[in-house]
Recover the amino acids of this structure.
């Protein structure tokens, strides 16, 4: 027998292993599609007893115990309908996406920048649309919601922007991380001028985002009663690390905030603002960006975290391309797989194992159309 | 210096259109002319030393283009008398001559200085040119006799064009948008506009496109405006801005 020969048994077991290995890498939606398909084929063949390759177990394998999922929608940048209805249609699409998830997520994170210019009409419209979500909503504030009236209307609608809660053994913290040092008083700006300055990404006049000393004190206090082994998930609109300063893809006091989070064994930060697939790991802290429903942003010319596998550049001829929503699957061990549901494209999942292995395993699908 | 006098300064020195000088009014020149005891309009030349009183004229807006022309000629005569050594080439007929402004000096300060370059001065540079006459260097026409100050003027003119493009790029109304979307919302610092890849076959359009075709495509689609004519100053200015942001990127026309 030649060296290359494999017995029929060996081939069978290798194929079987490869099959189950691939299955573990499926996202939930593809899994359900495939499960339905294989069950259908089995039924059509008149087989009643489940065959060995039919999908009967959950895709995520045995090592992951009772986890849970939450969905996210972020950065919708709504204008009032009479000004522009494109972004409204996008948000409605995301709401439909999330409402179609089965089973429903435990809750939905709204990632900030609900409004474009922080106006009452914009925030009210957004609040009304989010009411049609079936799952409970956790709100986070973005700079576009804040700098017209310094959060007055947003707080009336959604309460205080900084809060924490516990859910199924995980401690969640939502930060107000888009504070800026006063750049407007000295310049004699009106509230709308201030808002429009902050709204411009390439506007160098504004200050850099920060959690600020009060926010950090609050965070320290909040985490003081949390066991260091408890998984912590932080929601922040700004990235909580330093990516690209000129566009405020940046948190000025990121180092201080990270120092507060560092003692915890498992920390995941889910942030908005950057409108792109973005992956970073600093020490024990994993960072994931969120997609925008309104428009994607190009990758910054420098500072891109090494672990980030870029999403393909957007096709401007499709109003939805590069946009989307997504889901976070918190595994039984408290680490999170982050799913980017890119509209009209295959979804991309960035697994906890990819980050934990520092990019050695579970690498997401490669970029075929990188940024210019 | 009032807005009107500064406009006249520009008209005088440039022999240019008053309309062209309007934009300069935002950056007042550094040399205000002396004030007139009788309240007449004073016009200063950009050398900061030569000036002329318009006897009996209180309102600069009443000066006709012909009168402004005459004032410019008088000031120029005066300047030539003070600078007999200057090699003065008259501008070609119909040419517009660029103007130095405060902004040029400020923008120059932020750029790395050329080794051995002298800082810009208010002088015409005539003395320097004269010194160079004896040097062992080939002579030329315009490009044989320019000074640091000339370069500052050219740089300022270019920057002004780019700055105007920056304004239109960031202003939905200025580009004729109807849904409050401006270019910078998707293209901060004109990123991902990749002007260096045009012309190229734009698959979605089914034809070869230039950068301006894509600017107009964006104006028609996400911005929901009307396409700009090829010679529209806003389109030209936006092209200037976009190219300026990609300085140093290698030209790779046709790249996908």
């Amino acid at each position: 027998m030649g060296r290359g020969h494999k017995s029929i048994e060996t081939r069978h077991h290798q194929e079987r292993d490869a099959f189950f290995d691939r299955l573990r890498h499926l996202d939930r939606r593809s899994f359900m599609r495939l499960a339905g398909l294989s069950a259908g084929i089995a039924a059509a063949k008149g087989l009643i007893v489940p065959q060995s390759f039919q999908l009967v177990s959950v895709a995520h394998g045995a090592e992951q115990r009772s986890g849970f999922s939450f969905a996210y929608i972020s950065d919708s940048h709504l204008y009032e309908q009479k000004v522009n209805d494109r972004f409204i249609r996008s948000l409605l699409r995301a709401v439909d996406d999330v409402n179609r998830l089965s089973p429903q997520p435990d809750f939905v994170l709204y990632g900030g920048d609900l409004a474009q210019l922080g106006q009452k009409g914009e925030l009210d419209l957004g609040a009304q649309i989010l009411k049609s979500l079936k799952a409970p909503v956790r709100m986070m504030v973005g700079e576009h919601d804040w700098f017209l009236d310094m959060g007055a209307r947003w707080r009336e609608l959604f309460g205080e922007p900084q809060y924490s809660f516990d859910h199924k053994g995980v401690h969640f913290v939502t930060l107000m991380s888009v504070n800026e040092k006063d750049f407007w008083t000295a310049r004699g700006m009106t509230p709308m001028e201030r808002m429009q300055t902050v709204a411009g990404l390439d506007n160098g006049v504004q200050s850099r985002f920060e959690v600020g000393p009060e926010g950090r004190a609050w965070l320290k206090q909040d985490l003081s009663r949390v066991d260091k082994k408890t998984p912590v998930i932080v929601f922040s609109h700004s990235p909580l690390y330093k990516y690209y300063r000129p566009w405020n893809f940046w948190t000025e006091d990121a180092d201080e905030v990270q120092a507060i989070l560092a003692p915890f064994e498992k920390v995941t930060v889910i942030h908005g603002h950057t409108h792109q697939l973005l992956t970073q790991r600093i020490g024990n802290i994993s960072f994931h960006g969120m997609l925008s429903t309104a428009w994607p942003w190009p990758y910054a010319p420098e500072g891109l975290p090494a672990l980030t596998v870029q999403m393909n550049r957007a096709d401007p001829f499709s109003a939805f391309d590069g946009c989307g929503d997504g889901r976070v699957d918190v595994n039984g061990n408290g680490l999170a797989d982050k799913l980017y549901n890119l509209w009209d494209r295959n979804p991309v999942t960035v697994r906890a194992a990819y980050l934990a292995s520092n990019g050695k395993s579970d690498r997401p699908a490669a970029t075929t159309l990188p940024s210019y | 210096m009032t807005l009107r006098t500064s406009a006249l300064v520009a008209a005088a020195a440039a022999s240019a259109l008053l309309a062209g000088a309007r934009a300069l009014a935002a950056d007042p020149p550094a040399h205000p002319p002396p004030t007139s005891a009788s309240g007449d309009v004073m016009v200063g030349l950009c050398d900061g030393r030569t000036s002329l009183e318009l006897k009996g004229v209180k309102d600069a807006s009443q000066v006709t283009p012909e009168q402004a022309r005459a004032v410019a000629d008088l000031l120029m005569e005066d300047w030539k008398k003070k600078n007999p050594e200057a090699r003065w080439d008259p501008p070609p007929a119909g040419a517009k001559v660029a103007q130095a402004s405060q902004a040029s000096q400020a923008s120059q300060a932020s750029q790395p200085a050329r080794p051995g370059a002298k800082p810009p001065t208010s002088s015409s540079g005539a003395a320097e040119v004269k010194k160079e006459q004896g040097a062992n260097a080939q002579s030329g026409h315009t490009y044989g006799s320019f000074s640091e100050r000339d370069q500052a003027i050219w740089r300022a003119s270019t920057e002004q064009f780019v700055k105007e493009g920056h304004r239109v790029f960031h202003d939905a109304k200025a580009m004729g948008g109807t849904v409050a979307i401006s270019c910078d919302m998707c293209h901060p610092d004109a990123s991902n506009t990749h002007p260096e890849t045009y012309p190229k076959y734009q698959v979605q359009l089914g034809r070869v496109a230039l950068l301006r075709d894509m600017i107009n495509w964006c104006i028609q689609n996400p911005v929901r405006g009307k396409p700009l004519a090829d010679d529209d100053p806003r389109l030209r200015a936006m092209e200037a801005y976009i190219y300026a942001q990609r300085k140093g990127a290698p030209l790779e026309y046709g790249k996908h």
The helical segments of chain B are 3-14, 18-22, 65-82, 102-109, 126-133, 148-169, 211-220, 233-245. The two ends of chain B are 52 Å apart (CA to CA). Residues 96-103+122-256 of chain B form a domain with the Cytochrome Bc1 Complex; Chain D, domain 2 fold (CATH 1.10.760.10). Chain B touches chain A at residues 170, 179-181, 184-189, 191-192, 194, 197, 204, 217-218, 221-222 (CB under 8 Å).
